[in-house]
Specification:
Helix content is 17%, strand content 31%. It has twelve helices and 33 strands. Bound molecules: beta-L-fucopyranose and calcium ion. Beta-L-fucopyranose (FUL) binds next to loops. Its EC number is 3.2.1.51.
C-alpha cells in the first residue's frame, strides 16, 4: 500500500493537487481507510512475469537461416548447410535498429522447420558449424544475445519443434533431442524472456508423425528460466493471435481455457483471436506479423515492405487491442536489416511518437459515478496521474460506472486510450465514449473489451467534456488510466487497381495529393507522370509504383508497389464456373466442387504465349491449395510433364500471393493448375482468388 502514496505528490493542476493532498492526509489519518479491504482479484490472473511481459508491448521478430539464401519460406531440411553464408553479419545493427524503433526485445528463429540451428548444436549436423559462414566458427545466438544486452533489449528464441532435417524426427528419441537443444539455448546465452514454439507442421497425411513431449520441453526450459513466457497456439505464457497479419480481435480477452487447445490444432483461429471471456487461464494474445509479405528475406520483396499506414493499422490493431506486437524484420543475405525495412521502422516510430505526444486528459477535471466508497486507494484522480499502478474502481459488485473528463477550454482529440489494472484480472465487457455537444452527449464509440490497453482511432472531435460509460463487467471495473491524444493527419497510401483488360486506376484517400507513378520499377518522383484520374493501359506483366505528394512536392507518402501478371483480357476458364479465378480481381474467387484430390483448373489464354512463371492468390478462407503441379499446353489436350511442381509453404496461415518461376520459359496457349492436396486437413475443394502468368 505504501508505494501508492508516493505517486500523490506530483501533479499538474491545482484542483488535482488539492484533491491528492487531501487524499494523502486522509490516508495517513484515517484508520478506516487502512481497514478497507483491497479489491478482490477476479477470475484468471496474470503472473507477475506476464504483467511485465504485457508492458513490453512491441518487439522484433527475426527470421534468418538457409531460407534467407534459398528464397524459401519453408526449407526442406535437405539444403546444403554451406548456403548459409552472410557476408557482413552485424547483430549490433539489428539491436540498434530495434532500439531506435522503440522495441523492447528481439526473438530470433534459432531453429526453423528446416532444422538448421543458428548455434553450433551438439545434437544436430545441420548448423552454423557446417555452414560456410566464418568457416563454421560462428554462432548467431552468441552475437545477438550480446548485442541485446548491450542495447538493453530482452532476448528471446523461436525453436520449431517440427524438424525436417533431424533423422530422429518422427520417433520418440526426437523429444530428447529437442529438449537437449532447448537446454543448450537456455544455458549458453544468458537470460531468455520468451520461448516461442511454432505449431506449424506441413508433413501432410503421409508424413512423419511426432507426438511431442510438451512437459519435457517446458520443464527443461523452466529449470533455467523459471519466469520465461512460453508462446504457442495454446500458451501457457501467451498465445498466438490466430492469424499472421498482426490483428487481434476487437473483442480480446486475455483469458482462455488453455486445456482445450494444442499447438497446430486446426480450426482454433477465432477463439485465439478473441480469447475466451470465461477462460480459466491467463493466456494473453501476441500478434505476429512480418513487415514483408514473407517471413524470410527475399530480394523480390525489397519493394514490398509494408507501408506506414499499413503498419499503423497493425499497431492499433494489436497493441491498441490488448495484444503485444511481434513485428518480423527479416535479416538479409549480408546479415543486416535492409534499409527499406529500417527506414520504415523509423517512420513508424516517429509517427507513433507524434500520435502519443501530449496526453490531453491531464488537463481535465476527472469525476466518476459509482466510485468505490470509503476507499482511499481508488479515486477518479488516479485515472489521469500517468501511473498504471494507481486506479479508479467501482464498489464491490457494481458492474457499471461512469467517468467524466471535463475541460475548462474545449479540446480536440482523435485517439482515446483506456487501461484496466490487469493484476486484478480482466473485467470490462463493454463501454462507450461520448462527447458533450451543446447540451447533449453524443456517443462516438461503442466497444467491448479493454484489457491491459485499448486504443481507439476516432475522427477529430472537439468538446469540453468526455464521458466514458462502463456498460457491463464481470466484476467491478478497475481502471488505471484514461488518455486523449490528437494525432497529426497522415498521408494515405495510393491504391493501385487494374481490371481484366489491363486498365489501371489509382486512388488515394488523402486530400488532393498529387499522385505520380512509374511503370518500369523505378522510384516515382514529382518528375514522373502524374495520375490525373483517367485510367491508363498497362496490360503486360511488371511492377507499377505510385506515390502521393503534397505541398507542391515537399511532403511525400510511401511508395506503393504492385507487381502485375499479364492482364487476362482474352482468357477464359475451360473449367466450368472458374472465370472468377482469371478476372484480374483478387476480391472475387473461384471455388470448385467438393470431391477428392487431385482437382484441376484449366485456362485458355486465347493465343499462344511465352510463360515464365505463374502466380496463385489463394482465397482467404476455404479451398487453399498446398501441393500443386502446373502444366502448359499448345492445344489443351496434350499436357506432357508438369513444368512446375511443389508446395505453397505456410500458405494456410499466411495466405498471400505465391509467385512460382519456371525453370525455363514455356510456350503455350493453355495452362492447368492441378491441386494435389489442400492446405487444410478437412478441405475437399480447390479454389483460387486469382491465377496469373508472367
Ligand atoms: C509459422 C511458420 O510456419 C512460419 O514459417 C513462420 O515462422 C511463422 C512465424 O510461424 O507457423
Ligand atoms: Ca493511474
Amino acid at each position: 500500500m505504501n508505494n501508492r502514496i508516493v505517486f500523490l505528490s506530483a501533479s499538474r493542476l491545482q484542483s488535482v493537487t488539492m484533491k491528492k493532498t487531501l487524499l494523502f492526509f486522509f490516508l495517513l489519518c484515517s484508520a478506516r481507510a487502512w481497514a478497507q479491504p483491497e479489491i478482490k482479484p477476479y477470475g484468471a490472473l496474470p503472473s507477475p512475469a506476464q504483467v511485465k511481459w504485457q508492458q513490453l508491448e512491441y518487439y522484433m521478430f527475426i527470421h534468418f537461416g538457409p531460407n534467407t539464401f534459398t528464397d524459401k519460406e519453408w526449407g526442406h531440411g535437405d539444403e546444403d548447410p554451406k548456403v548459409f553464408n552472410p557476408t557482413e553479419l552485424d547483430a549490433r545493427q539489428w539491436a540498434r535498429t530495434a532500439k531506435l524503433a522503440g522495441m523492447k526485445a528481439i526473438i530470433i528463429t534459432a531453429k526453423h522447420h528446416d532444422g538448421f540451428c543458428l548455434w553450433p548444436s551438439e545434437y544436430s549436423k545441420h548448423t552454423v558449424r557446417e555452414s560456410a559462414w566464418k568457416n563454421g566458427k560462428g554462432d548467431v545466438l552468441a552475437e545477438l544475445s550480446a548485442a541485446c544486452k548491450e542495447y538493453g533489449l530482452l532476448f528471446g528464441v523461436y525453436l520449431s519443434p517440427w524438424d525436417r532435417n533431424h533423422p530422429d524426427y518422427g520417433t520418440p528419441a526426437y523429444n530428447q533431442v529437442f529438449a537437449n537443444q532447448l537446454r543448450e539455448v537456455h544455458t549458453k546465452y544468458g537470460h531468455v524472456f520468451e520461448q516461442w514454439f511454432d505449431g506449424a507442421n506441413g508433413e501432410g497425411p503421409n508424413g512423419k508423425k511426432q507426438v511431442y513431449d510438451w512437459d519435457l520441453f517446458h520443464n527443461t526450459v523452466r529449470k533455467y528460466h523459471p519466469e520465461v513466457i512460453f508462446f504457442s497456439d495454446a500458451g501457457p505464457g501467451c498465445r498466438w493471435i490466430g492469424n499472421e497479419n498482426g490483428f487481434a480481435g476487437t473483442t480480446n480477452w486475455s483469458t482462455l481455457n488453455g486445456k482445450q487447445f494444442a499447438p497446430g490444432m486446426p480450426g482454433i483461429n477465432k477463439p485465439l483471436n478473441e480469447g475466451q471471456e470465461d477462460g480459466t487461464d491467463w493466456i494473453p494474445g501476441e500478434a505476429d506479423v512480418s513487415i514483408r509479405p514473407g517471413w524470410f528475406y527475399s530480394p523480390g520483396t525489397d519493394d514490398k515492405v509494408k507501408t506506414l499506414p499499413w503498419l499503423l493499422d497493425i499497431y492499433y490493431g494489436s497493441v491498441g487491442r490488448n495484444a503485444n506486437l511481434l513485428l518480423n524484420v527479416p535479416v538479409d543475405r549480408r546479415g543486416r536489416i535492409h534499409k527499406n525495412d529500417s527506414l520504415r521502422l523509423m517512420e513508424l516510430r516517429k509517427t507513433l511518437d507524434a500520435d502519443f505526444k501530449t496526453n490531453l486528459a491531464v488537463r481535465a477535471r476527472t469525476s466518476a459515478v459509482n466510485t468505490r466508497k470509503n476507499s482511499m486507494l481508488t479515486s477518479a484522480v488516479y485515472l489521469t496521474d500517468g501511473n498504471y499502478n494507481t486506479y479508479w474502481a467501482t464498489g464491490e459488485g457494481q458492474l457499471t460506472g461512469t467517468i467524466n473528463l471535463s475541460f475548462e477550454k474545449p479540446v480536440t482529440f482523435n485517439r482515446f486510450q483506456i487501461q484496466e489494472f490487469i493484476p486484478l484480472g480482466q473485467r470490462v465487457k463493454g463501454f462507450t465514449v461520448s462527447v458533450l455537444e451543446g447540451k447533449k452527449y453524443r456517443e462516438i464509440a461503442r466497444e467491448t473489451t479493454i484489457g491491459y490497453k485499448r486504443i481507439l482511432r476516432l475522427p477529430n472531435t472537439t468538446t469540453r467534456s468526455v464521458r466514458i460509460e462502463i456498460l457491463d463487467a464481470k466484476a467491478s471495473p478497475v481502471i488505471s488510466e484514461v488518455k486523449l491524444f490528437r494525432a497529426p493527419e497522415l498521408l494515405a497510401d495510393p491504391v493501385i487497381k487494374r481490371d481484366k483488360q489491363g486498365m489501371v486506376t489509382i486512388t488515394a484517400a488523402s486530400q488532393d495529393p498529387a499522385i505520380h507513378y512509374t511503370t518500369d520499377g523505378s522510384e516515382p518522383t514529382t518528375a514522373s507522370p502524374q495520375y490525373k484520374g483517367a485510367p491508363f493501359a498497362f496490360a503486360q506483366s511488371g511492377t507499377l509504383k505510385a506515390r502521393s505528394f503534397i505541398d507542391g512536392g515537399k511532403k511525400a507518402g510511401a511508395t506503393v508497389a504492385v507487381t502485375f501478371d499479364r492482364a487476362p483480357a482474352t482468357w477464359k476458364a475451360v473449367t466450368p464456373d472458374a472465370d472468377k479465378a482469371v478476372d484480374g480481381d483478387p476480391s472475387t474467387s473461384w471455388i470448385g466442387k467438393a470431391g477428392s484430390f487431385p482437382q484441376e483448373l484449366v485456362v485458355d489464354m486465347g493465343a499462344s504465349q511465352a510463360v515464365n512463371g505463374f502466380t496463385y492468390t489463394p482465397r482467404t478462407k476455404g479451398g487453399i491449395i498446398y501441393n500443386y503441379a502446373f502444366y502448359v499446353s499448345a492445344d489443351g489436350q496434350q499436357w506432357g510433364e508438369p513444368v512446375a511442381k511443389g508446395s505453397f509453404a505456410n500458405i494456410l496461415n499466411n495466405p498471400v500471393k505465391q509467385t512460382i518461376k519456371l525453370s525455363k520459359s514455356t510456350q503455350g496457349r493453355y495452362f492447368k493448375l492441378v491441386a494435389i492436396s489442400a492446405a487444410e486437413e478437412k478441405e475437399t475443394r480447390a479454389g483460387a482468388a486469382e491465377i496469373g502468368v508472367f
